[in-house]
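Journal club side-thread
Mid-discussion, someone asked how the predicted structure for our own chain would compare to the paper's figures. Pasting it here so we can look after the session.
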Amino acid sequence: MLQGIKPTSLGGPALGMAIDVYDQEGNPLRGEVGELVCSKAWPGVTRGFWGKDDRYLDTYWNRWPDIWVHGDWASVDEDGFWYLHGRSDDTLSIAGKRIGPAEIESAAVAHPGVVMAAAIGVPHPVKGEAIAIYAVPTAGTDHSPELVKAISGQVVDHLGKAFRPMAVELVDDLPRTRSAKIMRRVVRARALGQEPGDLTSLENPAAVDAINRLKV
């Protein structure tokens, strides 16, 4: 049977995989973002971490009985199409509303003047956590206050006023691994004036120095 696909969707789980999306109480969820889980083991499932059985169980199995928690946000729409929304351990909690950084970054890069973005959560005295975005403008685009304002407006238009960024910083590059994955933990550490940790996997270590510390 042929099946179409919607933009950014994954279609559906592979045959033989008991994949689901759960809410915070461990109930199946549709139409909203939740935890990607697997309710039955499969032949290729990881059986453990070498010499660290407790860590393996805590990472994947101990949240709900006999349920593998993958560590990603996912959703299933009304037509049965599946979407991934980034790592659940990167989740931001903005005034009690949970959101993945990938959703914020997608809104930012929807602006034609932005080629790449990293969204992080920073402490906020009222909301608990606020959004900060580090964005890389496209070639030939000025690092201007107008672009900062436009990026912030783009996020509000896509996600709502509750997710208006506290800060938008324009940079020439973002720290990335050799597989082009943006290192959000490094961005956040630099933004908060903390030690960024291990940088050996970075392709462009010089980009770390360009991350300005935020006033929070």
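Post-session note: The CA atoms of residues 32 and 75 lie 6 Å apart.
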